[in-house]
Structure formats: structure tokens, C-alpha cells
């Protein structure tokens, strides 16, 4: 494949990925979508969407941040144990912990409804969605932190700190955590991004009072005018694209740090 | 505190989450199907047909995505030119788009008032609309899968030894021969891994199909309809459990075949 053929094909694929994004958000800021951009730009649709669906954005942020806190508290210690232990049991536990990623969200969600749908008011609460997001996102946090832990000399670091008289909490908080900050950052960005966009599970887990951003979007796509659907999509992009850029920056940084080590 | 006890305490919360909110629900799912649910699936042709369509869509998605990602990935891994970084950023931008948003993008591209339809009208032809057909669903799944597959291919291609390729070429191999005998075998673990993820995602995701409201009865859509509209819990549970088992098996097999490279 010659250079120009390759470049041409790559540009074509880029256009296939980017053009729909532009075409989709444009009606959301255009005064009259049938006249096109010449009719002027407007924030009218954005304001209308915010008035009707602002709550879904806030709920999604609330769930994403809660998921983040829980996956950090639960996932980082788990990754540490998995990195310290090399035996068959540790590998089996690791295998089990990442399983929820391999099972479609709709299956997990249906299982959650069967198991806990009738427990108290859980079904009507946003906590029900949170449970689903934690199950789905935890493997990503464990993996991101585990990858960093395995790339460094964990045992050597701990021995050195122990020889200096550091207790276990001192070693964990003062030596290990600062060294895995990069992995925690990468995992955190991943978890927030995944939670904000999660739909496969959330569609089954939500109720009319606990609608998240992607569920609201699906509703807008089937029920609302193109201008509103587009404006709503634009709001989602404004939220998710900076997160994605940060994620790629963090991944690039981790690669460089890894290369230096 | 002994190391062993500390390790047990540190991993206990993760195991508790896994056990309570994944293992128990999946167990419930397996049982809720009951003998009736599983028999219905196996005897009613429409469920088997839906399974067939789902596997077909997933296989086509995987093949098309791997083809595109290999071509683009090899090109980007081999060439350095101004704007390469920007191009890579554009190609991976959709990485974080959920399936439901991708469905909307397909509508705006190939729907009734979509870009393709407007262009075909302006050119004096007929209105071309394919968003709601099998082609539209495929387009969405391929769109969804290209960014992540591409990243895997680029990472693997950059690890390939360029000297092997040069050696093959200097021994008189044609470009196609180099691709077939050197590049593809070298990339095959990464392609297997990425392909499996692609296949499993296309089998289990339903955001795109939901947004398109297409008439293609992929399995996740059937599960959703059985559960919400028909309240047919046994069939929905049985289908979900088998679907989960299938995607998990595909990923586990691929991971074995690719030597642990699969996610």
C-alpha cells in the first residue's frame, strides 16, 4: 500500500467518524435547521433541553462521582493484593473480578432486578443504578491500577520502606499510593467516562424518577424534535470529550513514564 | 497483623461487591429461566432466528472492523507525517460515545433527513435511507468498534520488528505476500483479541439498535421487549443468561488463543 493510498483511506475513515458528529450537533445550535447556518446560531434549543433534561445531567454526574469514589476505595486495595500475590488463588480471584465486563449489561441488569428488585425501596432509588455502575466499572479500576503495580518493583519498594521502619499504613499511604497515582488517574477517568455513558444496564435499572443522561438521550431521540435531540447530544459531547482527551493524555503519560522506567 | 489476614481484609470489599451484585444476580438469572424458559427458546423459531441474526451482525461487524482497523493501523504505525497526531485524535474521538449516541449519529447520517439522503436528493437521485435496516445497524456497530480496535492494532504494529518485513521484501516477496506471511501472522494475537472484544460487544450491546428502533431483532432487543412489553420473565432471563454465557466464552477462548492479550 503506497503512502498516498494509505493516507487517502485513513482520511476517508476519519471523515466517516467525524462527519456524523458535526452533522448531529449542528441542528442543536442552528436557529432554523431547514434554512441551515444562514438562519443564524441560537442557544434556544440548549436552554430548552436544560430546562427539561438538566436533571438527567446532574444525576449522571452524581452517579459517576459516587461510582468513582467506591471503585477507588474498593478497587485499589484489591489491585494491591492481586499484585502482591502470585498464586493460583490470586489469578482466579482476578479472573472473577473482571468477569462483569464480559457479560452484557442487559443480562447483569436483569439479574440485579431479579435479586434485589423487591428489596425495600431500592428499585426506586438512584442507588440501584449506582450498584450496577459499580459492578461494571470496578474491573476497569482494578486493571488500570494493577497494570501500574505490576510494572514497578513493588516488593523492593516495600522492603526498603520496611527496612527504614515504616509500618504497613505508612508504607501503603506514603510509598505505594504516590507511586500508583498515574494508574489511579487513568482508572478514574475511565470509570467516570464509562459511567456517564452507560446505557445497556441503566435502561433496565432506571425508573421515571431516576433517568440518567444516556436514558434521557434515548428518550429524546425517539420523542423529540431534531433540534432538541441535537442540542442534548451536544451537551453530552461537551461533558465527555474533555474527559476523553484527559484519558488519552493520562495514558500517553503513563506510557512515557513506563518507557523511562 | 499477618500479611495473609491483611490481604484477605483488603480484597474482601471487592469480593463482596462481586459476589453480592454479580454472582448472586447471575445465579438468579440462570434459575429464573426455569425449564420452561429454556425449552421455549430452543423450540420457538423466532428466538433461534434472532440468535442467527445477532451472530451474523456480530461476525460482519468484526470482519469489517478488523479490515479497516488493520489497514489504518498499519498505515499510522508505519508513517510519521505532520498532522498524524491530529488524525489519530480524530480517529479515537468516538471511543467514549455510548451505543445509543452512535445510533443517533447513524440516523443523522443515513436516516430520513440524514446527510446521505440530502446529498442523494440534491444530486437528483432517489432519497437513499438505510439507517433503519441491517446496513444501518452494521454501520453503527462498525463506527463504535473502529476506535478501540484501531488502538490495539497500532500498539501491536509498533511492536513488530520492521527488519522482518525488510528481509521478506529483499527476498523478493510481493507487498501482498509480506502482508500475508509477515504482517498478519505478527498481528494475529492482537487481531484475535480485538476481534473477540468487537464480536462480544456487537452481540451484547443494544444502545444502537434501541436508538435506531430498527426492525432488526437482535438478541438484546428481544430480551428488552420480552421483559418490558410482554413481561415474559422466564424467556428474558433464559435468553440473557445464554447471551452472557456466550459472550464470556468468546472472550475467554480468545484470551486463551492470543496468550492473554485480550481484555
TrEMBL record, chain A:
InterPro entries assigned: MetI-like (IPR000515), MetI-like_sf (IPR035906)
Pfam families: BPD_transp_1
Transmembrane parts of this sequence: 55-83, 95-119, 125-151, 172-196, 231-251
GO biological process: transmembrane transport
Alphabetical list of CDD domains matching this protein: TM_PBP2 (cd06261)
Ranges for domain ABC transmembrane type-1: 57-245
Membrane topology, from the record: Multi-pass membrane protein
GO cellular component labels: plasma membrane
PROSITE patterns membership: ABC_TM1
UniProt keywords, alphabetically: Cell inner membrane, Cell membrane, Membrane, Transmembrane, Transmembrane helix, Transport
Compartment(s) where it occurs, according to its Swiss-Prot or TrEMBL record: Cell inner membrane; Cell membrane
Family according to the record: Belongs to the binding-protein-dependent transport system permease family.
Name listed for the protein in its UniProt record: Putative spermidine/putrescine transport system permease protein
Provenance organism: Roseococcus suduntuyensis
Biological classification of the source: Bacteria, Pseudomonadati, Pseudomonadota, Alphaproteobacteria, Acetobacterales
From TrEMBL, chain B:
Signal peptide (UniProt feature, chain positions): none
Annotated GO CC locations: plasma membrane
Compartments, record wording: Cell membrane
Membrane topology reported for the UniProt record: Multi-pass membrane protein
BP GO terms, sorted: transmembrane transport
Entry's family note: Belongs to the binding-protein-dependent transport system permease family. CysTW subfamily.
Source species of the chain: Roseococcus suduntuyensis
Keywords on record: Cell membrane, Membrane, Transmembrane, Transmembrane helix, Transport
Full protein name: Putative spermidine/putrescine transport system permease protein
Domain ABC transmembrane type-1 positions: 51-254
One Pfam family of this chain: BPD_transp_1
PANTHER family the record matches: INNER MEMBRANE ABC TRANSPORTER PERMEASE PROTEIN YDCU-RELATED, INNER MEMBRANE ABC TRANSPORTER PERMEASE PROTEIN YDCU-RELATED-RELATED
Membrane spanning residue stretches: 7-31, 51-75, 87-107, 127-144, 190-213, 233-254
Amino acid at each position: 500500500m503506497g503512502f498516498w493510498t494509505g493516507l487517502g483511506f485513513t482520511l476517508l475513515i476519519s471523515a466517516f467518524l467525524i462527519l456524523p458528529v458535526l452533522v448531529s450537533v449542528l441542528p442543536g445550535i442552528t436557529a432554523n435547521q431547514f434554512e441551515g447556518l444562514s438562519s443564524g446560531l441560537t442557544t434556544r434549543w440548549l436552554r430548552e433541553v436544560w430546562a427539561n433534561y438538566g436533571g438527567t445531567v446532574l444525576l449522571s454526574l452524581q452517579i459517576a462521582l459516587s461510582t468513582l469514589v467506591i471503585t477507588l476505595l474498593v478497587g485499589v486495595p484489591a489491585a494491591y493484593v492481586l499484585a502482591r500475590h502470585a498464586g493460583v488463588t490470586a489469578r482466579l480471584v482476578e479472573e472473577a473480578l473482571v468477569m462483569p465486563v464480559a457479560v452484557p449489561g442487559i443480562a447483569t441488569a436483569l439479574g440485579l432486578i431479579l435479586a434485589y428488585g423487591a428489596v425495600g425501596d431500592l428499585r426506586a432509588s438512584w442507588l440501584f443504578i449506582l450498584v450496577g455502575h459499580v459492578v461494571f466499572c470496578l474491573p476497569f479500576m482494578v486493571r488500570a491500577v494493577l497494570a501500574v503495580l505490576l510494572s514497578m518493583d513493588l516488593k523492593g519498594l516495600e522492603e526498603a520502606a520496611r527496612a527504614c521502619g515504616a509500618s504497613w499504613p505508612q508504607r501503603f499511604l506514603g510509598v505505594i499510593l504516590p507511586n500508583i497515582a498515574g494508574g489511579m488517574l487513568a482508572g478514574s477517568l475511565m470509570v467516570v467516562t464509562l459511567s456517564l455513558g452507560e446505557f445497556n444496564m441503566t435502561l433496565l435499572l432506571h425508573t421515571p424518577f431516576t433517568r440518567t443522561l444516556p436514558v434521557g438521550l434515548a428518550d429524546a431521540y425517539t420523542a423529540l424534535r431534531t433540534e432538541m435531540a441535537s442540542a442534548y447530544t451536544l451537551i453530552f459531547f461537551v461533558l465527555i470529550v474533555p474527559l476523553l482527551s484527559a484519558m488519552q493524555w493520562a495514558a500517553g503519560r503513563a506510557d512515557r513514564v513506563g518507557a523511562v522506567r | 497483623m499477618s500479611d495473609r489476614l491483611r490481604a484477605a481484609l483488603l480484597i474482601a470489599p471487592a469480593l463482596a461487591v462481586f459476589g453480592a451484585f454479580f454472582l448472586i444476580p447471575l445465579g438468579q438469572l440462570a434459575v429464573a429461566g426455569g425449564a420452561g424458559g429454556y425449552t421455549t427458546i430452543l423450540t420457538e423459531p423466532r428466538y433461534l432466528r434472532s440468535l442467527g441474526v445477532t451472530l451474523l451482525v456480530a461476525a460482519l461487524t468484526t470482519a469489517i472492523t478488523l479490515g479497516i482497523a488493520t489497514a489504518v493501523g498499519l498505515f499510522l504505525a508505519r508513517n510519521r507525517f505532520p498532522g498524524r497526531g491530529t488524525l489519530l485524535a480524530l480517529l479515537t474521538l468516538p471511543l467514549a460515545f455510548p451505543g445509543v449516541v452512535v445510533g443517533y449519529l447513524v440516523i443523522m447520517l443515513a436516516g430520513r433527513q440524514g446527510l446521505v439522503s440530502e446529498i442523494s436528493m440534491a444530486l437528483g437521485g432517489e432519497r437513499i435511507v438505510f439507517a433503519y435496516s441491517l446496513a444501518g445497524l452494521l454501520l453503527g456497530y462498525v463506527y463504535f468498534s473502529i476506535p478501540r480496535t484501531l488502538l490495539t492494532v497500532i500498539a501491536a504494529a509498533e511492536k513488530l520488528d520492521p527488519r522482518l518485513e525488510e528481509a521478506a521484501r529483499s527476498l523478493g516477496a510481493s507487498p501482498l505476500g509480506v502482508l500475508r506471511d509477515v504482517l498478519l501472522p505478527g498481528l494475529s494475537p492482537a487481531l484475535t483479541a480485538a476481534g473477540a472484544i468487537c464480536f462480544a460487544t456487537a452481540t451484547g450491546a443494544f444502545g444502537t439498535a434501541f436508538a435506531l428502533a430498527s426492525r432488526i431483532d437482535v438478541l438484546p432487543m428481544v430480551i428488552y421487549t420480552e421483559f418490558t412489553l410482554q413481561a415474559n420473565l422466564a424467556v428474558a432471563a433464559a435468553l440473557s443468561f445464554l447471551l452472557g454465557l456466550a459472550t464470556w466464552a468468546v472472550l475467554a477462548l480468545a484470551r486463551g488463543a492470543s496468550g492473554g492479550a485480550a481484555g
